[in-house]
Amino acid sequence: MFPMKVHLSRWVCLDVESNVERLREEGLRAAGDGAEVVVFPELFLTGYTRSLDPQSARDVFAEVSSAMPEALFVFGSISEARHNRVTVWSGGHQLAFYDKVHLFHPNGEHELWDAGQSYVAFEWRGLRVGLMNCNDIRFPEQARALKLEAGCNLLVVPAWWPWRRDHIWSTLLQARAAENQMWVVGCCIAGSVETVEFAGAGNHIFDPAGEPVRTADDRTYELDLDNPPPSIVDPAEQYVEIDRVEIIRG
Question: Which of 154, 167, 170, 155 is nearest to 211 (CA)?
Answer without folding.
Answer: 170
